[in-house]
């Protein structure tokens, strides 16, 4: 068992290649099997009766009437799907093949849907699937931005624990600047700048002074909480006009937003969500297919080699830490201008840490991070739904769910997921 | 430091364990003045000074009187400086009065009360700081203090109100139970790290959130709930940590426990075989494994001990300060403990002093908020600036023009063999 503790250095990897093939790693299949059991338990507990589902909104061009889904049958179908995912993972693990992320995502989504069926079957209330999914995407937005920031920073070798602080700084700057300018869009410009400021501090201490990056990140989170709360209690309290509610308007995209189900979910959002699509696609392509991305990854994996071929390691790290800060800062705008709320003390409430978990679950890739963030967003959305359906389960347990899932996932997938090799290590020529 | 630990046979001689020492070797031949100027104590003072200055700037810039005076700066510049001085000094004077000695108080008991408040608030910070520091030196980053404090608090409260036992026995049982609760909670992260390689930072962050919701739920259950929402039944008097001083003061035996445990942790880390192994794993896990030390076991042990210490911080809150379990039992102790341990350079003595400083800032901050209206959040800003400066000694030296103990124009990263222990320890 201790073998898994070995730091996955390039040297260890080559040494392992020379040895006989390692025993198959059954951790992921086991986690999925546990998930299947949980789903089966939920299916057993599902009351008789149907779930009323609505998948179109009132403003849709094509109206689909509310229809009923049989509760128990659906729950069992979902259980079979999770079981199938677990079985497929077993087969792959046996053949020592890599288990693709979508298997895990399918299993996770099916389990969550089974939970949805469990809580809504036999109830008269209608489950607004469109609203649920749109809400999921919306709640996932800051997590996606935070996780993308983490991807950029960690790929270049800088651990970014300060995502939480960057989100909070972005939320603060967006609210204040949007209030001053009287336009929510100006807030979208200020938010990334605030994130860059936090990123600059992270880079300054961890690159210039080689302070442990986790320490800097933790302290920067405290600093941003302290500064924004201090300014909130002083300047913003004396000048309430600096912290007014300015909301980004919803911008339905013509035609696309009329597609049933997909349209209202994906294309009836505000500018911040559209920016998120663009950044996710751009980063996914650029990190793995461009010169910039190659350099980024080289610096994060093997800085000495990168240096040898003429890449300025520390400059690359500086730039990309600032870029990561900007991305997370922009995500912070979600909490204020995108949600139409005024700034409040510590309003990010630990989302930055969830984003960090999403990044790890997403295996340091932008699309993976999005998938993980959406699962977190969905469980957040389910909690809100459960409150409206008056489910007799203490809400605290549902609130715990994403964290438990993260622990299971990190423990289950940790062996196969590898962080960039030079992450957290300062580079000195 | 311990690059090549002794083979982990029957206990390497503690004296041969190269105890981490302050980097005094190179400076020995130099002048006394240089030694003093480049000492880590002066560095710490410098970091605090810089943080206080930055905090003062923040107070001054956001002060409405100063802003009013700034409008007519060119007409009467003196007003601006007077207002600025007034804003900053009144805030810091109130901070001091709330933290150490309030000479404006009506009677001697009230005048001295701030100092005892400082010690009371410092108690859990020291305990949780020892927890973080011990984990650091064992190569683990325990961000989970928050969750471990909560679990310790839950167990302490349950043992405290559920059972009827004689006085001394009851408090002992409750305290030990709290330590066990924290140890088990942290042990989850330790076992997962040792068995699956799951990073303890992520796992402990998640465990913090889970514990946060757990305590919110548990105070509503029929077993724990009292008449007041969000507050559990009060623990029996037999389970309370006795007060050290009569009535108006809140200081209790938890403080003595914290000091005793600081000594205990010092002995464990510096003088015992287990501590040597923990430090060996923290300094270089691969070398430690080569030397026959089970890294997996040390990881679990380190997390369990760290969790026990943090759990005791919860016990100190529940059995000492509060007398009951509240949903906010942990406050921000778990996170403050990280900065306490960083400031104390993960050493027990340093942690005690850092805990006292942060306790003083916290106690003083409350009085500052009521007297001058300066928000308590200033304390967070001060704390984070202090730790940032402490973590980057060259920056403080540059700003304050202090000499470098290594006397090199650009500070190179110390070679592995002679790494100054203070950095290795803090960085873990």
UniProtKB/TrEMBL annotation, chain A:
One of the record's GO molecular function terms: transmembrane transporter activity
Protein's membrane topology: Multi-pass membrane protein
One GO CC term, this protein: plasma membrane
Subcellular location(s) per record: Cell membrane
Keyword Transmembrane set for record: yes
Key words of the record: Cell membrane, Membrane, Transmembrane, Transmembrane helix
InterPro entries: ABC_transp_permease
The UniProt record lists the keyword DNA damage: no
Parts of the chain that traverse the membrane: 30-53, 73-92, 99-119, 131-151, 158-178, 184-207, 214-236, 271-288, 322-341, 353-376, 397-415
Protein name: ABC transporter permease
Automatic annotation (TrEMBL), chain B:
Membrane-spanning residues: 41-60, 80-99, 119-136, 143-161, 167-189, 201-225, 251-269, 290-312, 324-343, 350-368, 380-400
Domain of life: Bacteria
Annotated segments matching region Disordered: 1-27, 404-428
A Gene Ontology cellular-component term: plasma membrane
Species of provenance: Miniimonas arenae
Pfam families: BPD_transp_2
Swiss-Prot/TrEMBL keywords: Cell membrane, Membrane, Transmembrane, Transmembrane helix
Comp. bias (Pro residues): 7-23
Location of this chain's protein in the cell: Cell membrane
Keyword Hydrolase: no
Signal peptide: none
The keyword Transmembrane helix is annotated on this UniProt entry: yes
Record membrane topology: Multi-pass membrane protein
Protein name: ABC transporter permease
GO function term, MF aspect, one: transmembrane transporter activity
């Amino acid at each position: 068992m201790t073998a898994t503790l070995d730091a996955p250095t390039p040297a260890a990897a080559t040494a392992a290649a020379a040895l006989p093939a390692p025993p198959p790693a059954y951790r992921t299949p086991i986690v999925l099997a546990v998930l299947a059991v949980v789903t089966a338990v939920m299916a057993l507990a599902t009351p008789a009766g149907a779930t009323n589902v609505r998948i179109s909104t009132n403003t849709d061009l094509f109206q689909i009437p509310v229809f009923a889904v049989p509760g128990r049958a659906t729950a069992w179908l979902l259980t079979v799907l999770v079981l199938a995912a677990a079985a497929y993972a077993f087969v792959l693990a046996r053949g020592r093949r890599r288990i693709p992320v979508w298997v895990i995502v399918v299993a996770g989504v099916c389990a969550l849907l089974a939970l949805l069926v469990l809580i809504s079957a036999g109830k008269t209330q209608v489950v607004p699937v469109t609203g649920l999914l749109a809400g999921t995407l919306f709640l996932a937005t800051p997590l996606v931005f935070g996780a993308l920031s983490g991807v950029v920073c960690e790929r270049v070798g800088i651990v970014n624990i300060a995502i939480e602080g960057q989100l909070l700084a972005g939320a603060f700057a967006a609210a204040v600047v949007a209030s001053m300018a009287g336009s929510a869009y100006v807030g979208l410009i200020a938010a990334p700048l605030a994130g860059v400021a936090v990123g600059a501090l992270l880079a300054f201490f961890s690159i210039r002074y080689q302070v442990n990056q986790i320490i800097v990140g933790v302290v920067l989170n405290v600093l941003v909480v302290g500064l924004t709360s201090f300014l909130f209690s002083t300047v913003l309290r004396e000048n309430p006009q600096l912290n007014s509610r300015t909301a980004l308007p919803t911008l339905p995209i013509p035609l696309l937003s009329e597609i049933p189900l997909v349209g209202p979910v994906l294309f009836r959002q505000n500018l911040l969500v559209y920016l998120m699509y663009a950044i996710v696609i751009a980063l996914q392509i650029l990190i793995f297919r461009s010169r910039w991305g190659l350099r980024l990854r080289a610096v994060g994996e093997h800085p000495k080699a990168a240096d040898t071929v003429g890449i300025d390691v520390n400059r690359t790290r500086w730039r990309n830490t600032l870029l990561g800060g900007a991305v997370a800062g922009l995500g912070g705008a979600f909490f204020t201008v995108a949600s139409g709320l005024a700034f409040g003390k510590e309003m990010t409430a630990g989302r930055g840490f969830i984003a960090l978990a999403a990044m790890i679950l997403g295996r340091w890739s932008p699309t993976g991070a999005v998938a993980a963030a959406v699962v977190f967003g969905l469980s957040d959305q389910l909690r809100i739904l459960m409150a409206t359906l008056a489910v007799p389960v203490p809400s605290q347990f549902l609130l715990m769910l994403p964290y438990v899932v993260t622990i299971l996932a990190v423990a289950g997938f940790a062996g196969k997921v590898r962080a960039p090799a030079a992450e957290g290590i300062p580079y000195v020529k | 430091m311990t690059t090549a630990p002794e083979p982990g046979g029957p206990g390497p001689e503690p004296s041969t364990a190269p105890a981490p020492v302050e980097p005094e070797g190179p400076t020995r031949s130099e002048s006394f003045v240089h030694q003093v100027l480049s000492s880590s104590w002066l560095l710490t003072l410098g970091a605090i000074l810089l943080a206080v200055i930055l905090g003062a700037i923040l107070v001054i810039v956001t002060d409405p009187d100063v802003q009013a005076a700034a409008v007519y700066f060119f007409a009467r510049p003196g007003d601006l400086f007077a207002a600025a001085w007034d804003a900053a000094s009144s805030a810091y004077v109130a901070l001091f009065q709330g933290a150490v000695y309030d000479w404006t108080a009506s009677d001697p008991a009230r005048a001295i009360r701030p100092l005892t408040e400082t010690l009371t608030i410092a108690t859990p910070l020291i305990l949780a700081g020892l927890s973080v520091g011990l984990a650091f030196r064992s190569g683990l980053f325990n961000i989970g203090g928050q969750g471990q404090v909560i679990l310790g608090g839950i167990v302490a409260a349950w043992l405290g109100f559920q059972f009827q036992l004689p006085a001394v026995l009851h408090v002992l049982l409750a305290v030990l139970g709290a330590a066990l609760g924290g140890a088990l909670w942290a042990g989850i992260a330790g076992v997962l790290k040792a068995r699956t390689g799951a990073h303890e930072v992520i796992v402990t962050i998640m465990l913090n959130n889970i514990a946060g919701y757990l305590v919110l739920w548990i105070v509503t259950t029929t077993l724990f709930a009292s008449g007041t929402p969000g507050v559990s039944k009060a623990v029996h008097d037999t389970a309370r940590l006795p007060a050290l001083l009569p009535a108006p003061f809140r200081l209790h035996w938890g403080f003595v426990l914290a000091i005793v445990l600081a000594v205990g942790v010092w002995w464990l880390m510096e003088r015992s075989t287990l501590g040597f192994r923990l430090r060996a794993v923290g300094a270089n896990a691969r070398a430690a494994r080569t030397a026959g030390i089970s890294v997996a076991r040390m990881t679990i042990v380190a997390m369990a001990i760290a969790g026990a210490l943090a759990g005791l911080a919860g016990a100190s809150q529940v059995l000492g300060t509060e007398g009951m379990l509240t949903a906010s039992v942990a406050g921000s102790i778990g996170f403050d403990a990280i900065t306490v341990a960083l400031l104390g350079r993960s050493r027990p003595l340093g942690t005690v002093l850092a805990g006292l400083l942060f306790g003083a800032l916290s106690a003083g901050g409350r009085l500052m908020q009521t007297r001058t209206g300066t928000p308590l959040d200033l304390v967070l800003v001060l704390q984070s600036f202090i730790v940032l400066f402490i973590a980057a000694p060259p920056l403080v030296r540059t700003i304050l023009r202090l000499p470098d103990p290594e006397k090199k124009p650009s500070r190179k990263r110390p070679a592995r063999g002679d790494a100054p222990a203070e950095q290795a320890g803090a960085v873990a």
